[in-house]
Structures are given as C-alpha cells and as structure tokens.
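Team,

Forwarding the record for the chain on the shared tracking sheet. I've put the sequence and predicted structure together so nobody has to dig through attachments.
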Amino acid sequence: MSGQQRRALDEMLRHAPLDVGGDVTEARTVFHEMMTSIPLPTDVTTAPGHLGGVPVVTVDTPGNDPSRVLLYLHGGAYAIGSAADAAGLAADVSRRCGARAVCVDYRLAPEHPFPAAVDDALAAYRALLDQNVPAEQIAFVGESAGGGLTTATLVAARDAGLPQPASATVFSPWADLTVSGTSTTGKAHLDPALTPEALHTRAHDYLGPTTATEPLASPIFADLTGLPPLLIQAGSHEILLDDALRLAARAADHDVPVQLQVWPQVPHVFQAFAALLDEADEALDSAAAFTRTHWARAAKAAEGSAPDVTPVAAPDAVLQP
C-alpha cells in the first residue's frame, strides 16, 4: 500500500477544521460540511423515512437485492453526525454488499443522553423485523460511536428476546466510554483526528448521570453471549485501537465468532477514504465479503441445511497483540 497515500490523508485530517470535543453546534455544522463536500455518485439514491418512529435515510445503489438490509449506525461521538452525513460511506458499503442500507438518525447528546441512541437503534431494528424482514437477511454496520452502538443494540435486542441479525461489522468502534484504553494515550501522537480530551467531553455529554461502565454505553463491559458473527476493523494510528482489541477479546471470551482486522499506519474510520486510500478499498471489500458470507450461512441455517460457504480469509493486515 502507498505510504504517500497514508501521509497525504494524515496531513489532510490534521488540518481539518473539525474539533470533535468543541462546541457541539459548531462541530455539527463543520462535520456536516465535511461529510457532504463531495457529492454522492449519481447512481446513488437516498430516501428519508421512519422506522419505529425513528428517522432514517435509505441508501440504494444499482443492482441491490431488495430483500437484504444493512442497518447502518453512523459515527460522531454520540453528539454529531447524522444519517444523511453517513450516506457516502453507507453507499460504498451498500454497493459492495449488494443490499440497501438504512441509516438510523438516532437522537444525539447532550440533548438526548443515554439510552436514547440505544432505544432508537433498537426501535429501528424491531420495526424491520415487524415489517417481516427476516433477521437472517439483516446485517448491522457501524462506525466509531456507531460501532459501539451497534454492539450495544445487539445486546439490547438479545435481552429483549429478538432474533439476532446475520452478522455485524464495526469500523473503529468506540466501545469504552471510560476512555481508559492504553492506546488512548499511547497512540495520541499518531492519531490525526481524535484526542482523549475530546472523547472525555463527548462521553460526559452522552452519559449524563449514567456510569461509564454501563454495559449498553460501553459494551466492552457487556455480556456478549449470543451475538452474531462480528467483524472488527481498526487502524493502528488511532487512539481507539485498544477499544477494538478489547472488544474482540470480549467477544471471543463469550464464544462469539469474531474477526479482528487492523491495518497499519491508517487513522480512525479510514474506510471512509476509499477514494484516496488503497487500504480503505481493501477493508471495505473484506467487510462486504464477510457480510455476504454470513447472509448465505444464515439463509442456509434458516432452511435447516448445513452451510457450505467458504470461510472469508482475513486480508494481509497487521493484527496487533
């Protein structure tokens, strides 16, 4: 992969105007401008709607299988971002998976602290099931805070007695709102986008009076037993690297089938930069292959036959100890 590409992306992010931990109104405006500065491809269609009373944006690309759904949870430290802001990355995932993406516009902190985001994501998932979309035809995808929220929503769904989706993929998940991972400080000089101070600010906004070790806020403290196959992707140049490592270990300890893929020298949610970075393109292809494989396996299991799908091979990525 190109070192020049990685250096150019790092430089771009270090000079970006977004202050994740700054004034929330300003941060939302800047983030929206950044995420929508590049128009969506002309063959991508978006449609606003509601699921379970929660606003959503459905993202479609040509040739998608209408029976399969990606339930997409955006990032933004629980305080910024929106379903519309996530449409670009959701469309990239949608195209590669061959399925429509439904981006959930969950309520944001500090106006709507925990558990509003979990309640909204769970309501959207429940509504899909109520619309007779089989669980085995649904896959979750989440980035950053949306990655932590994906895991928490799956735990909440399990506890509510709902069936699990076919799989879940999380990009650079924020899974520990205590902000206590060793990479939080150890990788701070390498991370061009996030700081420990910003995460502490947004965690305080989201948690309100809730303790940071609450399992549905910080799923590295949750019982993950019974969750579906999980793919976790991260970059080695992000302060949330340790969140990904510990979430994978937690999942493995609770007998969840899990793949951990760490790409060297790339930043937080590097998958959003597939147009600039070869590693991002490779990561998205790997995530799509994982998702399609588990859709096929879940469909076979639902039919009562033994799966014969070839397992997805991990890419040539660095797996951090």
